[in-house]
Design goal:
The chain has helices spanning about 5-40, 45-55, 60-65, 75-90, 95-100, 100-125, 135-165, 215-245, 250, and strands at about 70, 175, 180, 190-195, 200, 205, 210-215, 255-260. With about 260 residues, it is mainly α. Helix 2 (about 45-55) packs antiparallel against helix 4 (about 75-90). The two termini are about 20 Å apart.
């Protein structure tokens, strides 16, 4: 590689590391300020989210240091922003209910990021000299997609567990205007459809909603669907990345790699 090209790549890498460092420091400072405010205000639940976020923000650095994996600056910055958006803005700032589609955006990004991680794991193994077989671009893309969807499903299991056993409402309810149910039928296998629902009552008391209260199903399916979209998008990007032998510019921004050890 020409000396000028290596120098250019070195300068670019330095700029990217500086950008990552600035984002990392800025987010940690905001978390610390939010934590101090929560402690003074006596809102210890928010203080817990601050401590959790503070720990999670160190995860990328921990992975790089202990597992010898190099995270592209773009991927690391997106992960850091994702953690901050989910915990501080989403939970503490209540953006999940205040900002339309906030949860949808995060689940889409999660699907994309998890596909990138799954693809990287497969790609790293595929490049390992000890592995006796080579995986095709299509197979790598499928593995990345399946890995992302598995993480999405496991997260929905976690939300369901918290809602059932901890009385939370992580699976946000939706109001629907019609339902189809076999239990409401005449005892046969034929379901009954109820349309134009305007009121719902629980234990004889009418709820302040103009329809039937869905308990988490729509939210779960929506989360899995947008996770699917994010996973498909990156899987396609990853496919062409391998097909072109690493020439994909977008893929390089999000695919981790094994850190090259310096020769003594």
């Amino acid at each position: 590689m020409p000396k000028e090209s290596r120098l250019k790549e070195y300068k670019t890498a330095i700029k990217e590391k500086k950008a990552t460092f600035v984002v990392f420091v800025a987010l940690r400072l905001m978390v610390i300020i939010a934590g101090i405010h929560s402690y003074i205000s006596g809102v210890y639940e928010n203080l817990f989210f601050c401590v959790l976020t503070f720990v999670l923000l160190t995860a990328p650095s921990f992975v790089k240091k202990n597992f010898g994996i190099e995270l592209p600056s773009a991927l690391e910055i997106v992960i850091l922003l994702f953690i901050f958006a989910a915990e501080i803005l989403g939970e503490m700032g209540n953006y999940y209910t205040k900002v339309p589609y906030w949860d949808t955006i995060l689940h889409t990004v999660n699907g994309f990021l998890c596909a990138a991680i799954g693809f990287a794991l497969s790609d790293i193994l595929n490049r390992n000299e000890n592995i006796k077989f080579k995986m095709s671009p299509v197979f790598l893309a499928i593995v990345a997609f399946c890995f992302s969807m598995t993480i999405g499903v496991l997260w929905e299991f976690f939300e369901f567990f918290c809602d059932v056993f901890l009385s939370t409402d992580m699976q946000k309810d939706h109001v629907v205007k019609s339902i189809t149910s076999t239990l409401l039928g005449d005892g046969t296998k034929d379901p009954m459809t109820v349309q134009q629902i305007t009121t719902t009552a629980v234990n004889g008391a009418k709820l302040k909603i103009d329809g039937y209260l869905d308990i988490g199903l729509y939210d779960t399916m929506k989360d899995l669907f947008v996770n699917f979209i994010g996973a498909v998008v990156f899987s396609v990007i990853g496919f062409f990345y391998v097909k072109t032998r690493g020439k994909g510019k977008i893929a390089k921004l999000f695919i981790p790699s094994i850190r090259k050890e310096k020769k003594k």
